[in-house]
Amino acid sequence: MEGATSFTSAMTLTQLGVPHVPQRYILPSSQRPNPDHIKNPSTNLPTIDLSSLQHLSLRSETMDEIRIASKEIGFFQVINHGIPPSVMKDALDAATEFFNLPLEEKMLHASDNVHEPVRYGTSLNHDRDEIHFWRDFIKHYSHPISNWIHLWPSNPPSYREKMGHYAEAVQVLQKQLMEVVLESLGLNPNYLQDDVENGSQVLAVNCYPACPQPKLTLGMPPHSDYGSLTILLQSCPGLQVMDHNKNWFSVPAVEEGLIVQFGDQLEVMSNGQYKSVIHRATVSSEKKRFSIASLHSFAMDQKKGPAEKLVDLEHPAFYKEFSFKDFLDYFSNNDVINGQRFIDTLKKNPMKQ
Fold it and tell me: Where is the Fe2OG dioxygenase domain (predicted)?
């Protein structure tokens, strides 16, 4: 792709067997992951059995669980979500095969333009990051899949088929989850039906190679996602989320489970009732970790503000409208590790929230 930049990927550094993390990856001591500050996740990170929503006797209790998790942390895991384990495994296998390709093959998809529909890269925003992160990724637009799949990697040969099946399945799940989340806010479950159907889905396929000094760096810095919902599949633990008291929790790997995270668009749409979750990725000296984040948002140029039903005299609109394109423009022009969160630029009166 045009504009592709030259870089040394995290995977390449691991393959070279570097004994120390290069200086550009070393975080200031205050930003490093401190194991002593990680809380026990057992009670704070709920797992929701989605099949219970189909049972009248269990539905009310399950909706309460979702409402509490949404208000308190903007995060929960789901089981019995309808995506077959074989589809999830195939997607992780496809990710593994892609990142094991020779670098020159992966570089065919490299670009320093964050607007590219398919983009391979390293760190977060390699050209702009003052500090780099121990992560390689490939991102691709995925909905409607017929518009984009021909641009995805053709090597490995099964990549499009395996990742495509997962992308389609998780798009269906996202629509179901959005209906439940809207209902939990007291809104009509079909309130955003057209926006969700015509919205954007970006798959961010991540590889976090084994790292010689994992206490000095991160795979991704603390951030919140721009969209409405993110659905995450991880091969092993490594994700950490922050609660409203600024405590970090390591997210356990739930067998056949998927992680649901709220993004900035949902915080804005809920007028601050639900918050986008701040999260980060840690790395390990022993394990290579893969994750597939399905990032869902409204259409690229469509601006969204707080839902009218959630705005009144007591609860005025706390946020300005924004679009996915606004976020990309912000991301391409700012160093997110040292700057403010994108959502902070949208708040009308931060002191009251």
Answer: 198-298
